[in-house]
């Protein structure tokens, strides 16, 4: 199947994968988890992260023979360029929330072709909502199309941030937060992106890996939001970045405070 | 009716008031709000806060002729002592979230008799959950009884905090947060209390007024959680306090870091 010529069908298929992954997660929700630390006691992986990734990779491989797959848990490919069909997946975003709360976590899938964002999906598992689509389709959840959020200034909305970046006052983030209406910390990039897509937060700032922002970037840009490094330069899709997603006026306000 | 002798009936009646208030809020949810600033641009009140308070006060007055009522928006009584029947109500907690997100806000009702917490209720409006009860009844939501959260240490769970207190590093809160599994900021005391009651967060620290913590204190203590000032001393029910609600071991860990 030619993906570009059949985007709506691809959209339907990807949403189907996510629904299956959600069923798997819900069936594991009350079982004890196998939790392992990766880089620190705050950077966790569970059996569920790994099982989800395995399932999604299998689905992508049988759907798209040209796929190169970049996944958080490393069961995909070594991706060194954005040429061709690059799928970027986060099988469970917000693992700490998953372990401690069994809430506020996401599953994300993105497809880039030759570096261009084509389709992105963020599933809020516990609220049973998939936010997905792309520049050609628009952004849809199950029941409706998302409209472009109002282009609010920093002072007129809430700002989501990373806890460690706020505590260490990176980029004068403490002053930036005080200039906003208020600061929020959810602990899942996917859920934070959803808040911005829906206009419930003006923006979100965090140190993110490609799988944390690949899907959100496609959806945010489709809705006329800005996704850049915090200093305003373009993000690198194949490495970690300090990412700012926000309304355009909020981005300007933040850049003025950083410079 | 003698309230103490008819606690289950009183519980049923209070939950009925809350359901009515919720219907009112939902009917206003997509209308423009009349928003006014109180002490600052981050301290808001809306027509909905005021209408809720009026409705709850009217219900209490016709139910309990001995009621003294302390409400956030000042339509109740001037309460100067905890003697007798003292009802403490927050008609809309998390007004900034209500205005900016239409999510993550609560309605709270508490009844104290001669200073003793009898019944407390926190309604998460958008998730349609009422957490309520007291020391004689236990704590129930619509469908089940809450069990006592595991007595986790600070390092083993998430900690909810007030954004301004974190940014100003009051009580070494930045170090305390780094010692926890992670920091979260929701922006509604009621919703934060719910997270602690359900064991999804180890604790919550914020500068709170009586209506912000009166209901949560009753529910938390019923579930063997600790509710004190951040320095470990008892809270004053008639003034603002820097409040810590947490598991007992987390409280000890935090007190050790503050001293």
From TrEMBL, chains A, B:
One Pfam family this sequence matches: Inositol_P
Known cofactor(s): Mg(2+)
Positions bound to Mg(2+) 2: 90, 93
Alphabetized PROSITE patterns for the sequence: IMP_1
Residues the entry annotates as binding Mg(2+) 1: 72, 92, 212
Keywords: Hydrolase, Magnesium, Metal-binding
Gene Ontology biological-process annotations: inositol metabolic process; signal transduction
Recorded superkingdom: Bacteria
UniProt GO molecular function: inositol monophosphate 1-phosphatase activity; metal ion binding
Protein name from the UniProt record: Fructose-1 6-bisphosphatase
Natural source organism: Pediococcus ethanolidurans
